Each structure stands twice: as C-alpha cells, then as structure tokens.
Amino acid sequence: MEHRHLGRSGLMISEITYGNWLTHGESVARDAALACVRAALDAGITTFDTADVYAMGAAEELLGEALRGVRRESVEIATKVCLPTGDGPNDRGLSRKHVMESCHASLRRLGTDYVDLYQAHRFDDGTPLDETLIAFDDLVRQGKVRYLGVSEWTAPQLRSALDLAGELGLRDRIVANQPQYNMLWRVIEPEVLPLCRAEGIGQIAFQPLAQGVLTGKYHPGRPAPAGSRADRDGRSPVFVRRVLGDHLLQRVQRLRPIADEVGRSMAQLAVAWVLNRPGVCAALIGASRPEQVTENAGAAGLRLPDDVLRRIDEVLGDLVDTDPGKTARMMAVKPEWAAAAT
C-alpha cells in the first residue's frame, strides 16, 4: 500500500481508502462489516471514511468498534457533517449548533477524542459561510479535528470558502475534497479539479467503480447477479440501477481486454484509473465482503501507461459525463448515459 499527502497538507493517507457508505449498519451485517475492516487493515489501508448520516450513526459506531484495539495514531479517521440526522430543524446543515453537536456525537460513536479529517458533506445555502468556517476552525483549535475538507462542493463554493477564510484570518483551511469520480463520471474535471490543484486541495474520490458497474459483473441482456448491489433491497439498488442499460454495459465489457493486458481485474483497472488522475490522493472503496477489499486494494501502486488511458477514453467515448453543472446536483441527476437503462 502506498501513501500520499492529502493535498498541500503534511497528512499522509493510504491511496486506497476504506469507506462504509451504504454498507455498515445498513446492507452489511455486523460480522461482515468487521471482517471488511480487518481485511482493509491487512491490506495496508490506514485511512477510513464515514459520516454521521450513514445508517443514522450506526456506520460510525461499527467503524469505531472495528478499530477498537488498533493504535489510534496508526490510522486516519474521516467523517462528515451536514445531511439530516434527525427530524429537528437544527438536525441538519452547517450551522454552528449542528456542526458542534454533530462532531461531539461522531466522536462518541467512533470512540475517539479526535478525527483526522472533518468534512462538510454538502454546501449549506441556509447558513452564513463565515459561521461554518469559524465553527470548523474552533474544532481544530480545540483539538477535536486535525484537518478540514468538503464533499461535492462546486468550484464557486470552494472559491468563496477559500477567499473568506483568508479574509477572516483563519489558519485552518480546506485541504480535501471528496467528489464522485470515475471513468464515466468526470464532472469535476472542467472546474473543480483545476481550482483544487491550484489551491492544494486533494481529491478523495468516491465511487471509483461506479457502484460496481465498472467491475464488469453486470452484463447486457442479463439480470443482475444474485447478491449484487443491484439485486438487493434498500437504497443501494436505487443508485446502481439508474445506470444499468445495455448500451452502457456493452461498452464496459470492452474494457475487459484492456484489464487483461495490464494483468489486473476490471475493478482494479477502474480504481487504478482514478489513482492515475492528477490531483487525486486516494480512491475511496466500499465493500460487502472482505475479498472485495483485498481485490480493490490490489490496485495500489499500479501506474497505467498513457496508451492504456487513451484506449479507455476511446472505448467509453460519449458515455463520459463532464458537465460541471452536475457537481451540486450529483445525488439527484441521472447521467446522460443512463437514459438507455432498461
């Protein structure tokens, strides 16, 4: 496992990072979740990502349980705040009240005195930006947070935060962005990535496998494999089924010879693609079984030649989405290449 600096900061994170969105506390049983974390540690993964909203706190609790007994200084724990965690008017957003209360609740569930990276899960139009930035800065000064980040912010939102932090004289700045990013979904490339590279903000890319689509396990004209994400109940299928269509799946299968040529699985090729993009510090993987963690971690250190990257672009062609306007609407917008979904 290789480690990279998180943006311009001195913090080193494992280039394969383990996350538990839609798994721990939701679609994956406790024992399987604990086994996945053990597999991650065995693979050399030291960075673990979660959020207060995942399974309404159960994901943080499971991660805290899984890491109990592990030397705290040997791992990096990241979590997030913003999305609704209750029915009250202040159980959401980036107000000082919610940020402070959510941080304390996350620390309690994780069983730690501090988190290495605290991220604004989305932008909050209903809270003055200075209120949010000062609250985050105070958490750093209190020793409860080491570094600050955001997730799915647009370039103008990031620019505003960076400029305002400078005006306020805040010493603790944003060093990380967590966007959805993979071979098919590249909406951060026109605006977000250039800004982040110029400002020293590193990318922790989630969904590098496009909800499993880029693993090649879904085939055109066939039902989803038993036990796969698209075959489950709950929220998981909502995200993956929106991109399943024969046109897309036929193209994805054309990536298989490229993966064979570099001697890796299609999943490893997809993860390596993300890690080979400029400005990316880590690929954030999830798993329901420990063997998935082990396989995906096998992409660490894999450098893809320029001709391989070019051929991937040629195969996917017009299915690649680069519309920067979709960054803020990621959770609601259906990609163009999903229009052919059956």
UniProtKB/TrEMBL annotation:
It comes from the Bacteria. It comes from Micromonospora zhanjiangensis. Belongs to the shaker potassium channel beta subunit family. Keywords: NADP, Oxidoreductase. The keyword Nuclease does not apply. This is Aldo/keto reductase family protein. PANTHER family: HYPERKINETIC, ISOFORM M. Residues 15-315 form the NADP-dependent oxidoreductase domain.
